[in-house]
Amino acid sequence: MQLTERHRQYWKKTLRLSGVLLAIWFIATFVIGWFARDLQSLTFLGFPLPFYMGAQGALLIYVAVVGFYAWRMDRLDREYGAQEGEP
Amino acid sequence: MPGTAQTRFLSQLKRNYSLYTGGFIGFVVMLAILEQMGVPNKMLGYIFLGATVLLYASIGILSRTSDVTEYYVAGRRVPALFNGMATGADWMSAASFIGLAGTLYLSGYDGLAFVLGWTGGYCLVALLLAPYLRKFGQFTIPDFLGARYGGNLPRSIGVFAAILCSFTYVIAQIYGVGLIVSRFTGLEFGIGVFVGLGSILLCSFLGGMRAVTWTQVAQYVILIVAYMIPVVWLSVKHTGNPVPQVAYGYVLEKVSAREQVLNDPSTPEGAREAEVRAIFTQRQESNEDRLRQLAAGGADWLAAEKARLTRVADDLKARPNPDPAAIAAAEQAASTFPVEVAAATALWKKAADSAKTKAAPIQPHAEPFAGKDETERDNKRKNFLALMLCLMVGTAALPHILMRFYTTPSVKEARHSVFWSLLFISLLYITAPALAVLAKYDVYTLLVGSSFSELPSWVSAWATVDKTLMSVTDINRDGIVQLAEITIGSDLIMLATPEISGLPYVVTALVAAGGLAAALSTADGLLLTIANALSHDVYFKMVDPQASTARRLMISKGLLLVVAVLAAYVTSLKPGDILLLVGVAFSLAASAFFPALILGIFWKRANRTGAVIGMSAGLGICMVYMVATYPFFGVNAPLWWDINPVSAGIFGMPAGFAGIIIGSLLTAPPDQETQDLVDYVRYPNLASGEKSGAA
Q1: Which residues of A touch B419 (CB under 8 A)?
Q2: Residue B647's closest CA among B379, B353, B370, B372?
Q3: What is the pTM of this model?
Q4: Best-predicted range by mean pLDDT (A68-72, B269-273, B448-452, B518-522)
Q5: CB–CB of B226/B513 below 8 Å?
Q6: Which of A39, B65, B404, B455 has the most other CB atoms within 10 Å of its CB?
Q7: Which of residues 43-72 of A touch B (CB under 8 A)?
């Protein structure tokens, strides 16, 4: 099956979306983890910031990342006519 | 129209499970009334565990099937929401349910590596794997490797790795089942293991994935209810706020303030803590001293020392006014004195180490990577990040989780279902750190400073059940409990929470049932993965592709039985601790599967040679590092860059990627058919008008 230009565009957009969301995932997890000791003096809702991120913040970000991806990909599928027939 | 059938199915499921949840709550209320009427605790424990196991078994029997698609992937019609619940139960193991809060209690910030690692991996599942595997739409993970890379070799390595990591993981689960059953019913551990095993088999034997799915949904409801009730109660008790996740910031501040007081020897309480710690430092030194003398004098010194102690006891007896207590102590010291050099070394080393931990000041709960100098802190940070990465990538590579995304009706539903999974999982993982802080507050304010003559009832209750879980000893003989005098095992926090918050016994039984649900649901999924890898990938795909449906299912069920009995047998030998086994499973999965799966989807150029080299290299390096560095195996080679053996995947993963890339570039690109397959999985619907997948 030959891919059309639109197919390639769809794939490129998928990759870009995944890349951006993975970057958010990486920052929330590893960048904050790496600098945890330096951020210790900041507080958020009464928690030291790194502790809050590890115990709650990052998890909420993960849920948002996965939720946004599902929503955005549904739209992308429809824009490019790549959606599935009703199962 | 199939669309409306699916909608009807969904609303019927919602109705059934709402009724079920209501029924379950009614059941708990009924037991609470029975408790008030004076039914003994042990009886309540039996009823609770018995009733839930019976429930799982009935769902399993009702879902029996002889259809291949139903058996392997639940007919591919599990709606996103329910697949999310099933994945949640499949995912949350005994270690998460019982051990996590305790790990956080004991290690504070550093324990958050588990919280982050076990949730963040779902970002990788969602973005990189679930939709594509769903589009591929076969039955197992080795299926994908076999189809993408061609030939039996990649599939075989996949089967080997799937069995290796699932089997290690399932042993940890069955261990948890045995522990819970034996603790709450009084049965022996070995019998507990086989009782638990029986219920696992009843769930999965007749109905495969279909039965496992619908039991897991039921198990998720039980485990999340069981986790929330005691924590909410504890939160109300300490903060007046029924949302522990919001309320505990305030409690954490108080815990931190308390830590400072107890660490400061100029306050009266801090002075008493310092006194106890000084005694532990002495103990550490005296044990280290003995070790030095043993190293110098060997067996002769050991014998002479034992003889000397016996003489001391005899001298005491020969005195005019013998003191019976002193004699007993001296005789005890002489008779327990080790005879062999190896035993003596082990004993004193352990005593010195445990005294050393006790002699250290309290580590602030919220402080990341606490350590005495910069090297130690850097080391902790490095291992924290490495462990997190291994757990996340392992999450995105464990076959029993990835398999669940084959069961949704469409790619779209697969994406949605990762969202629901993560949401349901996060509910527990966001609560665990709150529980750890609330329990810590309770211990720091109510237990520390209380008198030994009137300990809180939960302390004495658990201390009599199991000394490794809870023990308090009056080290400095002042009659008052100091923090350094308390020893708490990590499993205690969750198990004792209902009693700490002053809830009736029925909630303790509920927690036990929740722990059992967590362990059973994970074990179900794992056993099915192993049996399917053997029956589908080895037997059907490699040995006898002409096998009839009936024969395939018969083989699969037979293998399930064999694997389950084998796993229970290995578990009854009690090999190593749970966290070690879990860590091994994650690192193995991360090294063996992740590179091959990701490059298989995102890099068309990846070919069979690359996959074979990469998977073997990843798996090989990971296994070699573990065997060389885990004290359990006795090799004790030096660590690479101070990375703990549990994070061996950190070396296996790059080896896997490098192997695939180099191996692929050195050989010819894959054929057109394979490249077309890659395009096929990338688009939910490649050509409009063409029927998509096996929806």
Answers
A1: 63, 66-67, 70
A2: B379
A3: 0.86
A4: A68-72
A5: yes
A6: B404
A7: 45-48, 50-52, 54-56, 58-60, 62-63, 65-67, 69-70
